[in-house]
Amino acid sequence: MIKPKEKSRFRVKKHLKKVLKRGTPEKPRLCVYRSLNNIYVQFIDDLNNKTLFTVSNLSKEVKEKIQGHLTKIELSKLVGKVAAEIALSKGFTTGIFDRNGFRYHGRIQALADGLREGGFKI
To answer: Integer distance in angstroms from the first to the last C-alpha of the chain?
Structure first.
C-alpha cells in the first residue's frame, strides 16, 4: 500500500510531466532526484528519449572539487556549479528545471542556485 505522503508526491510528479515543456536537444530538461544522502541531476532530451549526461555528488568531477566536510546544502550547490560547467562545455546555455515533485526548498533550491551561479539559465 502506498503511503499518503508518497501518493501525493506521485500525483504532483505525474501532473508536472503533463504541464512541463518537454526537453529538446537545444534546451534539455533538468530532472532532479534527491535521496537521503545524495542528489542527482540529469539533462534529458525528451524528443529523442535520451539522457544527455548526469551529475551527482558521487561523480568524479564533483569529488575532485570537494575540500573538507560540506553540508548537504553546500554539496548540492557544488553539484549545481559542476553541472553548469559541464553543460556549458557541451554547448547548453539554458534548460527546463524539473524538480520532480520535490519542494523548491533546501537542497533543490541550492542546486538551482548553483546552476545559476555557474552561468546556466533556468
So the answer is: 36
DSSP letters for 47-112: TTTEEEEEEETTSHHHHHH--S---HHHHHHHHHHHHHHHHHHTT--B-EEE-TT--SSTHHHHHH
Which structural domains are found in the chain, ordered by start? 4-117 (3.30.420.100)
Global pTM reads 0.84
Instruction: pLDDT tens for the chain, 122 residues: list them.
Output: 777 778 887 777 777 666 666 788 889 999 999 999 999 999 999 889 899 999 999 999 999 999 999 999 999 999 999 999 999 999 999 999 988 888 999 999 999 999 999 999 99
Residue 122, Cβ neighbours under 10 Å: how many?
13
